[in-house]
Recover the amino acids of this structure.
């Protein structure tokens, strides 16, 4: 299982980010975390750049947000974390 922890200050809108993540990942994610945080778990987590407040957080914070799993992709537009044991790189992701 892949798991990340996002701080609310990293997100442009915490509630909207949760809804968009759920839609983009086809309802395969679970959410948790304390107030002002968003913990996301699932077999594959995809986050779009426009959900994150700035480039510095995107480039430096996102890789540090990974609690479990591995970064499969980090481009200017998409951040993908997969379960280390899943072989998810065959779904169109780039091996990192």
């Amino acid at each position: 299982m892949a798991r990340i922890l996002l701080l609310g200050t990293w997100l442009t809108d915490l509630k909207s980010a949760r809804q968009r993540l759920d839609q983009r990942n086809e309802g395969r994610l679970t959410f948790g975390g304390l107030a002002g945080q968003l913990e996301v778990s699932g077999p594959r987590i995809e986050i779009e750049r426009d959900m994150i407040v700035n480039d510095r957080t995107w480039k430096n914070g996102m890789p540090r947000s990974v609690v479990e799993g591995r970064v499969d992709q980090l481009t200017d537009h998409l951040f993908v974390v997969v379960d280390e044991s899943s072989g998810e790189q065959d779904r169109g992701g780039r091996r990192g």
Remarks:
- The chain is about 20% helix and 35% strand.
- The first helix runs from residue 14 to 24.
- The two ends are 18 Å apart (CA to CA).
- Residues 88-96 have pLDDT under 50 and may be disordered.
